[in-house]
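Saturday, quiet lab. Running sequence design on the structure tokens for the scaffold JK sent over.
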């Protein structure tokens, strides 16, 4: 038991370090562990997202023997680490999801950088102020990153655990992503885009969910 706990703490410490590196590199901030945990439990994030981010922080799934087979990506022929699943895998359509998030974020006038694991864990910490509604932009970023990452993870789990599940098409993934954003965010006119046609994102996207 002691050896297992030590291994878990080693992975936890490594993930917290990744979160701190991401904040220093992109936002010139060096959050403490307490600040990172406060961000993970940010009031603007859903309870499901709190659980997901907590799981990522303590991620030890590939250390469990019963999951070793599932922990190897057959398509990419590599270990399915959190980083691989969320930002690298070729068969879970993660690139489709992140490109949709990129389009929305750039529409707000910000430069996009595809998030890594550290960025995902600290998505509630950065503050943005380019636009008059800086608080709304920060809220939008939190939800874009956290919910996009969680959707990537859910799609992967469905593919791996339900072995009969067919690989989703790019359109199916896009429709799921739009549904997630529609649930989490309220409408914002300036966030509408013609490419979504009848499935356009709600008009006041970025101003937070309805109270």
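Result came back. Writing it out in full:
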């Amino acid at each position: 038991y002691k050896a297992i706990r030590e291994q878990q703490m080693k992975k936890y410490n490594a993930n917290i370090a990744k979160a701190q590196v991401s904040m220093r590199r992109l936002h010139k901030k060096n959050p403490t562990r307490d600040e990172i945990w406060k961000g993970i439990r940010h009031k603007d994030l859903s309870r499901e997202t709190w659980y997901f981010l907590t799981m990522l922080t303590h991620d030890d799934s590939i250390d469990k023997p019963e999951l070793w087979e599932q922990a190897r990506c057959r398509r990419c022929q590599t270990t399915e680490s959190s980083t691989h699943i969320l930002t690298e895998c070729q068969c879970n359509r993660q690139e489709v999801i992140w490109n949709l998030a990129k389009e929305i974020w750039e529409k707000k006038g910000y430069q996009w950088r595809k998030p890594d694991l550290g960025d995902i864990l600290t998505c509630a910490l950065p503050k943005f102020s380019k636009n008059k509604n800086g608080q709304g932009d920060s809220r939008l970023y939190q939800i874009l990153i956290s919910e996009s990452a969680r959707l990537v993870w859910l799609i992967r789990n469905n593919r791996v655990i339900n072995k009969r599940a067919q690989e989703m098409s790019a359109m199916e993934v896009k429709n799921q992503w739009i549904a997630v954003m529609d649930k989490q965010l309220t409408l914002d006119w300036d966030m509408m885009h013609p490419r979504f046609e009848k499935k356009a994102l709600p008009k006041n996207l970025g101003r937070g969910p309805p109270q």
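Notes for JK: Confidence is low (pLDDT under 50) at residues 187-192, 201-211. The helical segments are 2-27, 33-40, 47-57, 82-87, 94-107, 117-121, 134-161, 170-184. Ask whether to fix the surface positions before the next round.
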